[in-house]
Amino acid sequence: xxxxxxxxxxxxxxxxxxxxxxxxxxxxxxxxxxxxxxxxxxxxxxxxxxxxxxxxxxxxxxxxxxxxxxxxxxxxxxxxxxxxxxxxxxxxxxxxxxxxxxxxxxxxxxxxxxxxxxxxxxxxxxxxxxxxxxxxxxxxxxxxxxxxxx
Length: 150
Prior knowledge:
The protein has 150 residues and is mainly α. The chain has helices at 7-10, 14-31, 45-52, 56-62, 64-132.
């Protein structure tokens, strides 16, 4: 007596074919090479359903494991994007802190220069008053100029 191989062990069921189509759609979208949906579209159950040619309900009801995989991958992408934004924010805060310190230093330097300039202006005014005074006699310089006061 010869045994016939069972038909169910060699043929794939419609559910298995659908699951395979969904898995392939997930991979195509993740790799950025979808056939149906627009490239660059984020991984979602809607996008996978469109790419695989099935309904969202089919994924949710008949393939909950794949639906969970899609949600996890989407959450992972969101976490990666959030982490990138947080890193960028930290860098910008650091840059702001550095610029703020530079601003405070420049402002202090500006105040110091303004103070020095006021002192020099007062000294200049004092020296002019001395030169313009008729009682002040200038000492002759090496070149013979008698108007030189100092």
